[in-house]
């Protein structure tokens, strides 16, 4: 691990207050369109799926509708499969991997399971290429009761009303070079702590729930993704992002304690994918395909 210079906002050692958060927010700009890239694609899926609006985020210049795409013939006797993307809006292949799964594979699984997909949980983060929401809150640490992040509250409330037994939840993410260059330094500045960076793994890996790790499920995903792109090797300490390997390409986190998206339900089979889009050995298209392969590999293992 290596330390980096102090972040440009705030006073080292002092947590941010409202003034620092406002200064940070003022620096954020829209770089791409949630409506063009995501909503327009969701609209084309309505011929095969039910599309539900489960919330609205009134942020800055835009008001963002939040959408779920569901199996049309919902059957409460079938198991439920949940796929989430864009919890961190800047993690592009998570959003487009969820959409690609819907466009190419989801109908196959809808024959034996209820499929529900939230392609972009953080649309403001998608547009501004950001990890946080406009309140400088990380949604992937905020899936908790009375969440401070509306992105999380809307989905938590919706899932409470869902009919059927949730069996699988796959949450699509990326680990990028900007985790070290921007987001971890910003986090340390916000919290008033000293920043230490981890080595960014070159390749795909999984973060499993320490309390529901299901090694066979994780292995099936790794084997499926290996056909598309390379799996990250551990660093010299045998770790990925500072955590010891649990198995090939897999580390464990305490999902519910940390407020992670993969901890929002009690599904038996859960995992978080991590694609590395900055690798010289992977293209943006491969990253999207890796996300789809992760979903299908896990579902094939569980639903076979």
Automatic annotation (TrEMBL):
Q: Which SUPFAM superfamilies match?
A: Zn-dependent exopeptidases
InterPro entries recorded: Peptidase_M14
Q: Where is the active site?
A: 274
Peptidase M14 domain location: 30-304
Q: Which family does it belong to?
A: Belongs to the peptidase M14 family.
Q: Name one GO biological process term.
A: proteolysis
Q: What is this protein called?
A: Peptidase
Q: Name one GO molecular function term.
A: hydrolase activity, acting on ester bonds
